[in-house]
Amino acid sequence: MSGDPVGIDSAAVTDWFLAHIPGVTVPLAFELVLGGRSNLTYVVTDRAGGRWVLRRPPTGAVLPSAHNVLREQAILSGLAGSAVPVPAVAGHCSDPAVTGADFYVMDFVDGVILNSDDDTAALTASGPAAFSADVVAVLVHIHRIDCDRAPFAQWRRPGGYVERQLRRWGQQLDRIEATTGALRDVARRLGRDIPAEQSVGLVHGDYRPGNLIIGPDGGVRAVLDWELCTVGDVLADLGWLVAMWDSPRPVGWAPDPAQGFAPTERIIAEYQRRTGLDIGDIGYYHAFALWRLGCIAEGVYHRYRDGAMGVQGVYLDEMAARPAMLAEMAAAALRG
Questions:
Q1: Torsion region of 335: left, alpha or beta (phi above 0 gives left; psi -120 to 50 gives alpha)
Q2: What is the DSSP letter of 115?
Q3: Could you tell me the pLDDT band of residue 181, with boundaries at 50, 70 and 90?
Q4: pLDDT confidence bin for 146, thresholds 50/70/90
Q5: pLDDT at 165
Q6: H-assigned helices in the chain
Q7: 3-state class (DSSP) for residue 18
């Protein structure tokens, strides 16, 4: 239908909901969640006010391994009932005839996602401090998941995680014909001095405030966006959180100690206290995270430029500049 959001055939998806989601009432409304960097996300609301979230790959040509939403659905199902809070999966569909691609549906989790200073107004006075503690506690829970059971065991790979990631994202840059040479320069430097892995576990891959739903008290209610999850070096996840927690405004919103959030140093120290791991190489993992974010930013820019993410209010010039900026930040982090 012409009024449908990009990536949704509302009539066909409504029929699927009626067949697979108990208690749904029609008509359904589909709202594209703006600002997505990878897969397309929609809030689905039925006539009675029931809400779900639907995830599907971007439209157009995509890298299947990077947008495998059924893999993400399997991860969420595998984490159900664990110490890691995740939305419950309501159903999934592998028939592209429904809306052009695989998709899955999960329960809507009410709460706050911190993407700006305005979002912090929903927290209680003690919320920022409580969130700072819980964000580390939940990350440790992720890293302690038993990776010898399904579905996680299938993602164990020979060789080091960082080495594999350097290779994978380098191939991604080649595939999209990226022109940011600085990212390739940083990759070579990162490849020369990879730390030995201390602990291998479940790695979220994009663990940051913007992928967490929290309550007003600061407690984490759900961890979202598992498409980059795999088994690997857990300190890469900590490095990613540090990069997001300490990011300048051009990269994205970051928690401000002036608002009651813990400083970056305390986040690192709390993780070390809970795990006993040596965090002496955190500067390397910080640089690696910034480099990987630059590679992701390159892919995001290409998807928005090519229209695969729908018509959204974005500034392509700013997007085009982000990969080089992040490459320079990664180089600076390596220099210490």
A1: alpha
A2: S
A3: confident
A4: very high
A5: 95
A6: 10-20, 69-79, 96-99, 127-143, 161-175, 181-192, 234-245, 264-275, 282-305, 316-335
A7: helix
Closest among 254, 236, 210, 230 to 291, alpha carbons compared: 236
Give the span between the Cα atoms of 156 and 142, in whole angstroms: 16
- Domains in the chain with CATH codes: 10-107 (3.30.200.20), 112-334 (3.90.1200.10)
Under 8 Å between Cβ of 71 and 38: no
State the DSSP H helix or E strand holding residue 32, giving kind and residue range, or none if neither.
strand 29-32
State mean pLDDT over 153-169.
Answer: 92
Question: What is d(CA 67, CA 57) in angstroms, rounded to the nearest whole number?
Answer: 5
Burial class for 26, CB neighbours closer than 10 Å (0-12, 13-18, 19+): exposed
pLDDT tens digits, residue range 288-333?
Answer: 999 999 998 888 777 767 665 555 556 777 777 889 999 999 999 9
The CB-side HSE value for 269 (13 A sphere, CA atoms) comes to: 5
Joined tokens for residue 118: 């305005």
Helix H or strand E encompassing 48: none
| Vertex 66: Cα angle to 61 and 69 (nearest 5) | 95
The per-residue pLDDT for 247 is 78
**Torsion angle of the four alpha carbons 21, 22, 25, 31, in this order, in degrees rounded to the nearest 10:** -30
